[in-house]
Amino acid sequence: MTKRRKTHFGYIILGAGLLVLAFVATFFGVQFFTKTGLFRVPGVVYYDESLLGTELATLQEIFTEEVELEKDVHISGYYSLEMPVLKSGEFLVDIAVPVTDFYSTQDNITLESADAAFTNCASCDYKMIPVEDLDFKQKLLAINDKYYLDEFTSGAVYRVIKFQSDAYETEIVPLIGETFVKTFPTNETVLTFAQTGVTALSRGMNAKLDAVGDATYFASQIGEYLAQFDITHISNEASFTDFATSRNICSDPRFINTLTAIGLDVVELTGNHNHDCGDAAANATVDLYESLGIKTVGGGKTAAAAAEPLLIDEKGNNISFFAYNLSTGGATYDDTPGANQYYEETAAAEISAAKSRGDAVIVDVQYYECSMYVSETEDTTCDAADSAAGDQVGFFRHLIDLGADIVVGTSAHQPQTFELYGDGVIYYGLGNLFFDQVWWPGTTRSLVLVHHFYNNKLLQTEIVPTVYGSEMQTRLMDEETKQWFLQRLINVRP
């Protein structure tokens, strides 16, 4: 009996041992095959060869030897010629844009692939730079006819870093944090400001309006283009009055429809003809602009009103816009309407105060005219920054020395040259946007300056030439003529 009991007990012990052994084998077997527990293999960080050296260095500072991951992570990078639609785990880390010399007439480069943009090319006439390094002293080029500052979704090379992991949200996100989250220019943060030259809807244009009957006729080929910008500016020389004729610098009231057709936001009143039609017409014209929400600068109903600068606060940009008359007349010195007379001490103080606020500063000047017109032939005298009186180059450069970022001459009836100077840029004359001067080739042309501001910084100014003919319908200059004409102006820069 005793022997049987011992044998039975031994079976129990053996069975229990086998159960324990089976449990242990199963426990560690599962860990072995699933690579968990004692047999766990830490997640591996795989760096793709597409990563750049700087990107790899940043990543290795995050994924150090002390970091243990449960799951593998694959990290790669890629370029695109279009703004990518980012998926989970993807970050837009850089935008590169092509630039060339400020004085180049080149507008575009052609690329078949994004990688080609960074190919070392000794003969290439452009270079790629990060968009945060873009400024007005370089000329931004389009890529495959797409200009980056138009829509921000093309015209650049977009760089993306991509993380792939089964534990992306739980493991990768806490590690990388905000490292790869960057802010780039967008339509919501870049302010577009189109400045145009002389507008004088008068004289022969009054007669033409009577013939066509509709004032939008004159803007039909340029209106949509100018209206697209956040701010569109003109320098108008003529007040509205019922006494407008084909012989005076007075504007038929119907011409307000020309201005609304171009999406006018700001009218400069520094011209020397706004008072030609009398006080009542000048005052009524200012009232009309105000009723339409069109802001004025450089002129007004009184000297005090004329001297008020235009302060622009839009899309995170603060711009102080000053406009002065230093010309052959038209200024007001009292409680009568007219243009804002230039005074050195006042201008210096105003510009200094604006710069101390951190504003971008634009200064427009109605200067002495360069009047060298030769009937039906090209005359290049006025291309240069020269005028009938005074030192135009010296005076405009002096305004940059005072702190202006952009100086623009708004009196010239023919476009003049332009130049980088000091810490700013000067456009000596913009020519005629709308006028009846169709007899001289020079006076049928103008320059539209499309400024792009971002964080109070001038990113770029596009120079867009226009032209009109005997029909008096302003239009964009064709590409071949544009190249020829801009080069002509560049050749005579100071």
Protein architecture, described:
The protein has helices spanning 2-34, 53-62, 148-151, 168-176, 204-212, 223-227, 256-261, 279-291, 303-306, 344-356, 392-401, 479-490; strands at residues 45-47, 73-82, 90-101, 108-109, 127-130, 138-140, 142-143, 154-165, 190-195, 198-199, 231-236, 266-268, 295-297, 299-300, 310-314, 317-325, 331-332, 338-340, 360-366, 406-409, 418-421, 424-427, 432-434, 445-454, 457-467, 475-476. The chain folds into two domains: 45-176; 190-490, Purple Acid Phosphatase, chain A, domain 2 (4-Layer Sandwich). With 494 residues, the protein is an alpha/beta fold. It contains twelve helices and 26 strands. Helix content is 26%, strand content 27%. The protein starts with a helix and ends with a helix. Strand 1, helix 2 and strand 2 form a beta-alpha-beta unit. The strands form five sheets. Strands 9, 10, 11, 12, 13, 23, 24, 25 and 26 form a nine-stranded mixed beta sheet that branches. Strands 1, 2, 3, 5, 6 and 8 form a six-stranded mixed beta sheet that branches. The relative contact order is 0.10.
